[in-house]
Design goal:
Two copies of one chain form a homodimer. By secondary structure, chain A is an alpha+beta fold. The first copy, chain A, has nine helices and eight strands. Chain A is 50% helix and 21% strand. At the A-B interface, α3 and α5 of A face α3 and α5 of B.
């Protein structure tokens, strides 16, 4: 497994000394998962933040009717976890499952607490990336409140075009909060429009 | 204006020395706003993060039809800003307006960047509070995808009962993404149910 993308990603935000990189890497667990395997299961405590070295994952919530609702996808250079569970070390509401075979760089909760003390720059790093994630979550709330499904789909394609090609349509429908039949109708209409 | 709630709030998360508190306070602008005044207007760059010492505010988005969609409320001990605009110092999508007369403790973007260097513990502080805000935003996305309006309203009342008493019903309807007529119907049904 190649850990360099992980270091390159962190270097975009903070400068770590060689010693700090060594300390950080000593706490990183590199782990392979097969397509279909769970990284987090709801009810369990989420013990790791996972950085995607390769592969594609989804985080989803199962409602009382057993329906799956996809909250996010993650591909290379993204982080994924049930952050609510991770920061409070309480049982997860979400599931995180591999949509493809995955290679992950994982940090255990306890190791991260120690890393924050040993390498305070990591506070800055995680502050910056979580701010970005928060802004993206707020945008999604606004889009859900204001945009019709067709526009939400077009925006998904624009923002996550690399993901669209890698996950089945029913998962995209779940992410958009619509049925797969409705997504299929939207897609046909867009193709017709293009051909006109 | 009493700045102690601001210091008490920060002390919940990090221990600052007396010197650090002095430096921090030297960068805080205490400002009064009247009900109806704007703290952020869409199109302007959001230059401040605002901590609420007293009062109530709303952050909202105006769609292409001129419809207002409320993204969040803030009362005492909450932070409010257009964070996307603040962190990138680009024009705001959101408006932040006072629902009551307000007293705010504000930190200017430039001062905050300097404070991060002078008091690295503030990196930790803002990392922790933004993580919580992110988890809350994710929960809201899940609720919007999975819960009927009546349950979203009940949850709002439970989580934000102090806010419910302070803002008009049409704002709560906007927050929930429903019309005020529909909220009124939900409320009547809940009252009937209680009386049965």
């Amino acid at each position: 497994m190649d850990i360099r993308p992980f270091l390159d990603y962190i270097r975009q935000y903070v400068d770590l000394s060689a010693d700090e990189e060594t300390i950080l890497l000593s706490k990183i667990k590199q782990k392979k998962y097969l397509k279909g395997q769970y990284v987090v299961q709801n009810g369990d405590v989420c013990k790791f933040e996972s950085f995607v070295l390769s592969g594609c994952l989804k985080a989803f919530y199962i409602d009382n009717e057993g329906q799956e609702h996809i909250l996010m996808f993650a591909i290379e250079n993204w982080w994924i976890a049930d952050l609510g569970s991770f920061i409070s070390q309480t049982p997860a509401d979400l599931n995180v499952q591999c949509v493809e075979n995955c290679e992950l760089a994982q940090i255990h909760y306890n190791d991260l607490q120690q890393l924050y003390l040993d390498i305070p720059k990591l506070e800055r790093f995680f502050r910056i990336i979580i701010q970005k994630a928060f802004v993206a979550a707020q945008k999604r709330i606004i889009n859900n409140l204001t945009l019709p499904a067709v526009d939400r789909y077009l925006q998904f394609r624009e923002q996550y075009h690399k993901i669209e090609q890698r996950v089945p349509q029913y998962m995209i429908a779940s992410y958009l909060g619509i049925t797969k039949e409705f997504l299929s109708k939207i897609r046909s209409q867009l193709i017709e429009k293009k051909e006109e």
